[in-house]
Amino acid sequence: MESALRPVLVIGSAVLVTLVVGWIGDKLMQAADARHPETPLWQLLRRCRIPLQTVLCVAMLRGGYRATRIWPEHAAAVEQVLVLVLIAASAWLVVRVAAAVIDASYARYAATSRNVPKVRRLRTQLTLIQRTFTAVVGVIAAASMLFTFPEMRTVGASMLASAGLIGIVAGVAAQSTLSNLFAGLQIAFGDMVRIGDTVVVDGEWGEVEEITLTYLSVRTWDERRITMPVSYFTSKPFENWSRGDPRMTGTVFFHLDHSAPVDAMRKRLLEILEQTSEWDRRAWGLVVIDTTPTTIQLRALVTAKDSGDIFNLRCIVREQLIDWLRCEHPYALPRIATAPAPGRHDDRAPEAAPMPNPDHLGPGPGPQ
Fold first, then answer.
1. 106: how many CB neighbours lie within 10 A of its CB?
2. What residue numbers bound the domain in which 87 lies?
3. Category of 255 on φ-ψ map: left (φ > 0), alpha (ψ -120 to 50) or beta
4. Which domain-ending residue is among 61, 92, 112?
5. Is the model more confident about 64 or about 61?
6. How far apart are CA 340 and CA 343, in angstroms?
7. CA distance 236 to 228
8. Are 269 and 245 a contacting pair, CB within 8 Å?
9. Whole-structure pTM over 0.85, yes or no?
10. What is the tally of structural domains in the chain?
11. Is the residue at 273 inside a domain?
């Protein structure tokens, strides 16, 4: 009877203590969150409840496993498994706590700062720091799990002795990966490109959606995703429309007839701009920038607060001005000449006169 109750008591006690500690910790986090609503830290720390309970339960089972006397012939193997699970759960808990602290720091800064570029820069830096920290914790946890095996401790000395040679070989083999890794850190702290920036790479316009330690994802205007190595942004030129001041100036070009009413077009352009919410009222203009024997080229200049508004504003101006010209001044639209070119109209040789029909001829002279 005692042998049957012993494992039930040990395992039940571990589970009960884990549940009680988890419940108390969750209630304390709720109370702290209610007292400090200005920071989301305590609410985010509540996500650490499951890994914390896992660490507590596994630690208690590891400490009291001998007392259960379950599978005594396999006690060493079971304890080894519990140690491995404990290391993995501890790494999980550390990563969750770090993520909660980082997310809370970003949320507080984003809520109080009005500088959008600085918020994007902080978001990019914290994202890369979090991923770097997660990778480091994962490597340490994996190494700790391996060194729990006696065989790996024996091999460890020889591995350390040849670490220099292995490092050289690994550096040569992973040259591109390491270059992307350092390029990612350079992007994070060099403020070249941030999450949410509007960029043009390889002729594609889009918004930076994700930045990792090795690659960068750009979401284009038609919902495609372009994945590029981060080393691209440190080795090749690209356009960043969000760096510094996001305000932009756009142009719309028209090819019209020489009789186009330029002054009337200027007045109509101003009317169109005043009716649109995309125009930021910084500048506008309409000038003739070129002429050809058949047409003139006009350039309309408009301004907006960002790249999205400038694209929409250019489309509006182009559409409404063309419609106005078509309805009010159709003669101003470009025309294609279809008249024959001046010169000789017919270079063919003159045709011979037709032969007369003998039946239509009158009586000829008779014999003399």
1. 18
2. 2-112
3. beta
4. 112
5. 61
6. 9
7. 12
8. no
9. no
10. 2
11. yes
